[in-house]
Amino acid sequence: MKEILGKKLGMTRIFSPDGEAMPCTVIQAGPCPVIAKRTTDEHGYEAVQVGFGERKKIRTNKPMVGHFSKSGVAPTQYLREIKFEGEVEVGDTLTVDLFHEGERVDVTGISRGLGFSGTMKRHHFAGGQATHGQSDRARAPGSIGQSSSPSRVFKGMRMSGRMGKDKVTILNLEIVKIIEDENLMLVKGSVPGFRGSLVKVRRTNRK
User: Fold this and answer.
1) Distance CA 145, CA 165 (A)
2) How do residues 122-144 score in pLDDT, each as one tens digit?
3) How does pLDDT run across 17-56, given as a tens digit for each residue?
4) pLDDT given at position 90
5) Residue 9: which residues within 8 A CB-CB, separation 6 or more?
6) Buried/exposed 156-190: b ≥16 CB within 10 Å, e otherwise
7) What digits encode the pLDDT tens for the residues 73-103?
8) DSSP state letters, the chain
9) Which residues are within 8 A (CB) of 146 and not within 5 positions of it... i.e. 6 or more apart?
10) Dist. CA 193–CA 164, nearest whole Å
11) Cβ(103)–Cβ(190) under 8 Å?
12) Which of 68, 152, 170, 182 has a 20 to 30 Å separation from 54 between CA atoms?
């Protein structure tokens, strides 16, 4: 298992040797300093705590400063636990060279928040018919329940509500290019989130 934190920078395209244009997402993967380790004997599970991004010193409280000082690493903007198989010690730095071109990865991020949305946008409803007197039912959700029995709306009914801002994982994306000196990774296709949002990249277990 290999994982690393990164930041979505945006999208671009590159051309394959046969001239095919491939849409790609540019991810700044790392550097991620190792802040702490979680062991089975002490914590009950195996994990590595890593940081990512620069953090303003004025926004770091004293407990976090003490936590970072134990590892000798400057405070970072993000602090997450990841699964990592391999020899790594506190103070080491994980970079994009963990991965190679042609490898398949899963990318996890928070999708863009779209606010309160109607049923047609949120659930792809078709809407009401345009004729036979339906002048104000074009984008209505329609019936949401029964009248006398059971006289309630069932839990999970698809209705209007908050859309987006969910944790989404895109599986089995191909790494088409890696620029090690700039810690950049180009993956084929799109990943969730807006420009500058935090993403987690891990080696996929899909075949």
Assistant:
1) 28
2) 999 998 888 888 888 889 898 89
3) 888 899 999 999 989 899 888 888 888 888 889 999 887 7
4) 84
5) 26, 27, 28, 184, 195, 196
6) eeeeeeebeeeeeebeebbbbebeeeebbbbbeee
7) 888 888 998 887 778 888 888 889 889 998 9
8) --EEEEEEEEEEEEE-TTS-EEEEEEEEE--EEEEEEE-HHHHSS-EEEEEEEE--GGG--HHHHHHHHHHT---EEEEEEE---S---TT-EE-GGGS-TT-EEEEEEEPPP-EEE-HHHHH------SSTT-SS-TT-----S-SSSS-SPPTT---SEEE---EEEEEEEEEEEEEGGGTEEEEES--SS-TT-EEEEEE----
9) none
10) 10
11) no
12) 170
Residue the block writes with tokens 């699964």: 83
CB 117 within 8 A of CB 163: yes
Tokens describing residue 125: 């409803």
